[in-house]
Each structure stands twice: as structure tokens, then as C-alpha cells.
């Protein structure tokens, strides 16, 4: 497993952070990827975002979006959800949605990971972003190949990027 630590300025658009963009450029070799939390990402893949102001085809909650394509196989998945219950609340409030109790529990992330894991081809990748290195894990059939720690200085949390390959 490769572990790197590269300092970079923070950016709410995760994929524009230089070392993260460089990592994505190394792994994403086709447009047959899925991103249920795309934000303003410019990556060419099947994208979804709850925010209607984001110019994408799908504006569904991430779980429903993944269920819609559950029978399709992808080379990889990007998993860049809100990193904490507070961020989930901020995202929902920003677009006028109410937050359910379930939306703030660990189940919010795990049930999306469960369905996404089944959609990735053998030897495909999932790239997860957050404040922990949990990733998808061996229980879902993935092995970590690379971890990128991106410290942002000051009192900012590091962005932790976990690249896993389906075994």
C-alpha cells in the first residue's frame, strides 16, 4: 500500500485540489465511472447531485441514484459525500430539504457504499474522500492500494483519499 502526504490549500471542490486532481488523473481512464455526490466536478462520468443548481442530469438522493443503476457495471466509483452529519445538514439546508434522523447516522454512508460496491467490476476502483480512511473495506470486496493525506494547514482537517481495488 502506498501512503503519501502532500500539503495543499483547501477547496470545497475536492477534485480541484492539486494532489487530488493528479491522483484522479492516474486512476480514471474511462468515462465508465459513477459519482453519486458530484458537486461541480468536471470529471466525465455518470453524475448525480441533490443541488438543482448543479448542471447534471440527475438530482436524486445518492442512495436512490445508485439503486437506479444497480444493474449496470462500472470501472470505478467516486465517493465524496458530506464528511459529517453537520455537513449533511448544511447541504440539505442549502437546497431547502429537511433532514431525517437516518440521514445523520452512519447508515447514511454505509448503505450507499453497499450498493455501489456491487456495481464495480472486478479489478475496478473506488476512490473515497473524507476525514477518515475507512473506505469501502474488505467486507465489501476491496483492498486499499493507496492513501493520500492532504493536510491544509491551520485548524483545517486533512482530506483523506483512499483508493481501493475490487478483489
Any chance you could write out the topology, listing elements then pairs?
Layout: E1 2-5, H1 18-27, E2 33-35, E3 46-47, H2 62-68, E4 74-79, H3 85-94, H4 107-119, E5 120-130, E6 142-150, E7 159-166
Parallel strand pairs: 1-6, 2-3, 2-4, 4-5
Antiparallel strand pairs: 5-7, 6-7
Helix pairs in contact: 2-4
Describe the structure.
The chain has 167 residues and is of the alpha/beta class. The protein has one domain: 3-Layer(aba) Sandwich (Rossmann fold), CATH 3.40.50. Helices cover 24% and strands 26% of the residues. The protein contains four helices and seven strands; from the N terminus they run βαββαβααβββ. A hairpin with an 8-residue loop joins β6 and β7. The longest helix is centred in the last third of the chain and has 13 residues. The protein is globular.
Keywords:
167 residues, alpha/beta, Rossmann fold, seven-stranded mixed beta sheet, 26% strand, globular
